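stage 2 :: seqdesign
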């Protein structure tokens, strides 16, 4: 019952192949997506930068109902996420696991910060359009929020996601799996507020 794992290119190629093979079949679904469990109808997808350490442990921490997509660390990660979500809708939670520092997210070769955000505005809008009305975006990156909440607000505006539902988790790399498990256990809470920049994680 492990979570399914695919690369962003495989996800995009799979959707294209299915559309070409069965153009009149109605809603297109990917074989790479794991069917949600009988106890929940939420639809979740996690994008993990392949450059992040301990990927096997991170993948294992997600529930089987979560679709896992590995981002090619040698390509633009924001573009990969947008391409994977272009034809998707009603996603309840998007998890993004990557490297980062204060006010900056590394996604493959992309650097997402307030200075580069205009470059990715179209891609971010595509990502936002894939969310359900109550969908969450959760970003797991080292110290991303340490420089304040400007980047969070900018991503919220670009994706159309409610700022209160866009959470940024600062973490020590070895604690990432535990953080994901904690979030998944508490997923039934209606709102996840971003952590305060004044309350750094213990080291």
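stage 2 :: out
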């Amino acid at each position: 019952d492990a979570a399914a794992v695919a690369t962003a290119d495989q996800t995009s190629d799979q959707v294209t192949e299915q559309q070409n093979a069965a153009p009149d079949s109605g809603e297109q679904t990917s074989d790479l997506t794991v069917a949600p469990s009988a106890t929940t109808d939420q639809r979740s997808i996690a994008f993990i930068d392949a450059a992040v350490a301990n990927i096997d442990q991170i993948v294992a921490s997600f529930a089987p109902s979560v679709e896992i997509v590995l981002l090619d660390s040698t390509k633009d990660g924001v573009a990969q996420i947008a391409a994977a979500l272009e034809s998707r809708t009603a996603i309840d939670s998007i998890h993004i696991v990557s490297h980062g520092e204060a006010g900056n997210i590394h996604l493959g070769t992309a650097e997402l910060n307030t200075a580069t955000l205009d470059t990715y505005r179209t891609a971010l809008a595509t990502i936002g359009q894939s969310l359900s009305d109550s969908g969450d975006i959760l970003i797991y990156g080292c110290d991303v929020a340490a420089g304040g909440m400007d980047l969070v607000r900018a991503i919220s505006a670009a994706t159309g996601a409610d700022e209160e539902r866009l959470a940024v988790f600062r973490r020590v790399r070895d604690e990432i799996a535990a953080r994901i498990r904690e979030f998944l256990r508490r997923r039934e809470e209606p709102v996840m507020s971003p952590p305060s920049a004044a309350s750094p994680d213990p080291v």
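stage 3 :: structure notes
- The beta strands are 5-7, 44-49, 66-71, 91-97, 99-101, 104-107, 110-112, 131-140, 166-169.
- The chain is about 30% helix and 25% strand.
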